[in-house]
Design goal:
The structure holds 2 protein chains of 2 kinds. By secondary structure, chain A is α/β, with parallel strands linked by helices. Chain A has helices at about 20-25, 30-55, 70-75, 90-95, 100-110, 140-155, 175-185, 205-210, 215-220, 230-245, 275-285, 285-300, 305-325, and strands spanning about 85, 160-165, 190-195, 200, 205, 225-230, 255-260. Chain A has one domain (about 20-325): Thiamin diphosphate (ThDP)-binding fold, Pyr/PP domains (Rossmann fold). Classes of the chains: A alpha/beta, B alpha/beta. Chains A and B meet through helix 6 and helix 7 of A and helix 3, helix 4 and helix 5 of B.
C-alpha cells in the first residue's frame, strides 16, 4: 500500500464491500485478529451497557458501537510500540491497542483492579506500556499530546508513529489547529484520524465544521483522505499508507473516516436529533457485518473460525464481568495517592 | 553532589557572580549534558535565544533537536511537553510569558496535572514548564501578571519560583530531574540580577523554604522579586532596632509550612508579601495556614501585602503604585508591630 497516495476524495472506486485487494494482503491471522477486536469492542460495550442499566456502574459511558472498523483498521496498521491518543468515546481504541477487557471492565466498575485503580473510569483508560497515552474527557485535547509524542519519537529517533483519534466534535477546537499545524511545521511522525460519526452530542458535524475536516489537509500542507470508516479494508489501507509515510519521516497525514454511532451520545440520549430511518440506514452498513461478508466471500475464514472467536470472546466477557464484580473497591486512603511520583 | 538549601552554605571558594538568566541557562545546559532526553521547546527559544535570553547561544551548541523552536501555539507547546514526557523524553517547555498560559490552560490543568492520577499512577510526566511572570517591565495588563496561585491550586502540579540566581539554578535543576510536572515561575524584573553562584554541581530541593534573613520581631513570608523588597525593608528597619526575619518560600507547592511556622512561632508576627493581586492570591493560603496552625503564637493578625485589584496598568506611576514596594513593606511591618490596621 506504500505506493498508494493517501489523498483520495470519496472512498474507493470499488463496490461497497469489495476490499479492492486489501483483504488479500492480510494474513489469516490478521483477519482473525481484526474480527476478534471488532467483536470484542461490540460485546464489551453491550455488556457494559447492561451493567450500567442494572445500576452496577455509574458516570457516563460513550459507546463506540458502529465505529469498530476505524479503531481496528488503524491499529491493525500500527506496530506494537506505536502510540495513540484516544477520546471520551475510547473503549474501541483501548481494545484495538491491546487492552484487556477484564481490567477495562473493572475500571468501569470503579474497582482497584481496573486499569486506573478506579481513579479514571471510562473516560480515562490508558496503558502507557501498550502505547495507549490515554482516553480523554476533553474534546480535542489528545491532539496536542499526540503531536508531543510524535515530537518525542522524532527527537529520540525511536522510529515510532503516533495516531491521534478524535471526533468531528474536535474539528472546531483550537487544540486541533495547534496540534495539527505544529505537527505539520515540524514534519512529525503523526497521523490524525478524525472519526466523523456525524454528531457531537446533538450537533451535526456539518454545522460544527465550516467545511469538511479532510479539506483542511491542503491548508496544513499535508496529505488528507476522506474514507468510509465502516469499511475495515479502506481504513486499514489508508492508515497503513499514512503510518508508513510518517515512519519514513515524511510527516503527518489527516484522515477523515465517515462512520456512525449506533447508540446515543452516552447511555442517556435525547433521541430527538436523528431519525429512525437514518439510524437504520447506518446499522445496515454495520462494519462488522460488512467485514464478515467480505471475508466469507473470499473463503479465507470459515464459519468455524468466526464461531471459535465468538466463543472465546463470550468466555472473556464472562470472566471480565465476574472479575470486575469480585474485585475490591478502593479504600479511601488512596485518595491523595499517585497525584505525584513520590 | 552537594545539596544546599541556603546561599550561605554554598562553598565560598567557588562562588562567582552571574545573572539569573545565566544561572538558568547553566541549569538547563548542565541537565542537557547529564541526560540526553532533556530538550527545550518553546517560542523563540532557538534563533532568538529566548525572550529573556535564557537559552541564548544554546541552539548553536545543541542544535535544533535539543533546542526546538515552535510557532506561536501555547496549547501545542504544553501538549508537546506532555506527549514527549509520557513517551520517554524529559522536556523543558517554555511559555514566553506566563500570561500566555491561559491559552494552554486545558493542557496544563486537565492533561499534564491529572494524567498520572487519572491513569492510576501508571503514567510519569518528567516535565518542566518555565514561565516568566511579574511586574516592573512596563508591558501592561497582558504581559505582567502573577498567576501562580491558579497553578498552585491544582493537584498534580508543583510550583516553584526563585529570588536569587543561586536558587534559580538549583531549583531548575531539581525541577528538570523531577518525574513530576513542575512549573517554574521566573520573575522578569530579576533576570538581570547578579548573584553568587558557585562553580559546579548543586541542587536546591523543591519544597524547602529558605530564611533569607534572620530576625526576631516580625516575619515577612514572601517569594520571588518581593523577597528583595522584604530584605530592603528589613535593612531599613534594622536601623531603628526592629529585627525582621525574611522567609523566601521558593516553592508554593509543596509548601514548606514547617519553616514558615518556625519563623512565626519565634517572632509572633507575620506579614505575607506577594506581587499577585492581593485578593485570592497565594498569600491568602500562607496566611490561612499560619492562623490555623499557629494561632496561639500570634501577637497580631496576619497581614497580607499584595497588588491592587486591577489589571496591570501601563503608565509608569500607575504600574509602580499597583505593586508592593519597599516603603509599603516597611509600613506593613510597622502596622504588624503596632497591631494597628
Amino acid at each position: 500500500m506504500a505506493e498508494q497516495s493517501p489523498v483520495s476524495t470519496n472512498g474507493r472506486a470499488g463496490g461497497d464491500d469489495a476490499s479492492n485487494g486489501v483483504l488479500e494482503q492480510l494474513s489469516d491471522d490478521q483477519l482473525r485478529w481484526i474480527y476478534l477486536i471488532m467483536r470484542r469492542i461490540r460485546r464489551f460495550e453491550e455488556t457494559a451497557e447492561e451493567a450500567f442499566r442494572a445500576a452496577k456502574m455509574r458516570g457516563a459511558l460513550h459507546f463506540y458501537i458502529g465505529e469498530e472498523a476505524t479503531a481496528t483498521g488503524v491499529c491493525a496498521a500500527l506496530d506494537e510500540g506505536d502510540f495513540i491518543t484516544s477520546t471520551h468515546r475510547g473503549h474501541g481504541h483501548c481494545i484495538a491497542k491491546g487492552a484487556r477487557m477484564d481490567k477495562m471492565m473493572a475500571e468501569l466498575f470503579g474497582r482497584t483492579t481496573g486499569y486506573c485503580g478506579g481513579k479514571g473510569g471510562s473516560m480515562h483508560i490508558a496503558d502507557i506500556e501498550l502505547g495507549n497515552l490515554g482516553a480523554n474527557g476533553i474534546v480535542g485535547a489528545g491532539i496536542p499530546i499526540a503531536t508531543g509524542a510524535a515530537l518525542g519519537s522524532k527527537l529520540r529517533k525511536d522510529g515510532k508513529v503516533t495516531v491521534a483519534f478524535f471526533g468531528d466534535g474536535a474539528g472546531p477546537t483550537g487544540a486541533f489547529h495547534e496540534g495539527v499545524n505544529v505537527a505539520a511545521t515540524m514534519n512529525l511522525p503523526a497521523v490524525f484520524v478524525c472519526e466523523n460519526n456525524q454528531y457531537g452530542m446533538a450537533t451535526h458535524a456539518d454545522f460544527a465544521n465550516a467545511a469538511a475536516i479532510h479539506n483542511r489537509g491542503p491548508a496544513y500542507g499535508i496529505p488528507s483522505a476522506s474514507i468510509d470508516g465502516n469499511d475495515l479494508f479502506e481504513v486499514y489501507a489508508t492508515a497503513k499508507t499514512a503510518i508508513d509515510r510518517a515512519r519514513r519521516g515524511e510527516g503527518p497525514t489527516l484522515i477523515e473516516a465517515r462512520t456512525y454511532r449506533h447508540k446515543g451520545h452516552t447511555v442517556l440520549d435525547q433521541k430527538n436529533y436523528r431519525t429512525k430511518e437514518e439510524i437504520a440506514e447506518w446499522v445496515a452498513r454495520d462494519p462488522i457485518e460488512r467485514f464478515v461478508r467480505a471475508v466469507n466471500e473470499s473463503e479465507r475464514l470459515d464459519e468455524d473460525d468466526f464461531q471459535a472467536i465468538d466463543g472465546q470472546i463470550e468466555r472473556e466477557i464472562e470472566h471480565a464481568v465476574a472479575f470486575a464484580e469480585a474485585s475490591p473497591w478502593p479504600t479511601v486512603d488512596v485518595i491523595e495517592r499517585d497525584v505525584y511520583v513520590e | 553532589m552537594a545539596v544546599s538549601t541556603s546561599q550561605a552554605s554554598a562553598p565560598e571558594t567557588a562562588t562567582r557572580e552571574i545573572f539569573m538568566s545565566e544561572a538558568l541557562r547553566e541549569a538547563i545546559d548542565e541537565e542537557m549534558t547529564r541526560d540526553p532526553t532533556v530538550f527545550v521547546v518553546g517560542e523563540e527559544v532557538g534563533v532568538w535565544g529566548g525572550a529573556y535570553a535564557v537559552t541564548q547561544g544554546m541552539l548553536e551548541k545543541w542544535g535544533p533537536d535539543r533546542i526546538v523552536d515552535t510557532p506561536i501555539a501555547e496549547a501545542a507547546i504544553a501538549g508537546l511537553g506532555i506527549g514527549a514526557a509520557l513517551t520517554g523524553s524529559r522536556p523543558i517547555a517554555e511559555f514566553m510569558y506566563s500570561d500566555f498560559m491561559g491559552i494552554a490552560m486545558d493542557q496544563i490543568v486537565n492533561q499534564a496535572a491529572k494524567n498520572r492520577y487519572m491513569f492510576g499512577g501508571k503514567a510519569k510526566l518528567p516535565l518542566t514548564y518555565r514561565a516568566p511572570f511579574g511586574a516592573g517591565t512596563g508591558n501592561a495588563a497582558q504581559h505582567t501578571q502573577s498567576l501562580e496561585a491558579w497553578f498552585a491550586h491544582v493537584p498534580g502540579l508543583k510550583v516553584i519560583t526563585a529570588s536569587t540566581p543561586y536558587d534559580a539554578k538549583g531549583l531548575l535543576k531539581s525541577a528538570i530531574r523531577e518525574d513530576n510536572v513542575v512549573i517554574m515561575f521566573e520573575h522578569k524584573a530579576i533576570y538581570a540580577m547578579r548573584g553568587h553562584v558557585p562553580e559546579g554541581e548543586y541542587l536546591v530541593p523543591i519544597g524547602v523554604a529558605d530564611v533569607k534573613r534572620e530576625g526576631d520581631d516580625v516575619s515577612v513570608i514572601t517569594y520571588a522579586r518581593q523577597t528583595h523588597h522584604a530584605l530592603e525593608a528589613a535593612e531599613q528597619l534594622a536601623a531603628e532596632g526592629i529585627s525582621v526575619e525574611v522567609v523566601d518560600i521558593r516553592s508554593l507547592y509543596p509548601l514548606d509550612t514547617d519553616t514558615i511556622l518556625r519563623s512565626v512561632r519565634k517572632t509572633h508576627r507575620a506579614v505575607v508579601l506577594y506581587e499577585a493581586v492581593r485578593f485570592g492570591g497565594f498569600g491568602a493560603e500562607i496566611a490561612s495556614q499560619i492562623q490555623e496552625l499557629a494561632f496561639d503564637d500570634l501577637d497580631a493578625p496576619v497581614l497580607r501585602v499584595g497588588a491592587a485589584h486591577a489589571p496591570v496598568p501601563f503608565s509608569e506611576p500607575l504600574e509602580v503604585a499597583s505593586f508592593p514596594d519597599t516603603a509599603q513593606v516597611v509600613e506593613a511591618i510597622r502596622q504588624s508591630l503596632q497591631g494597628v490596621y
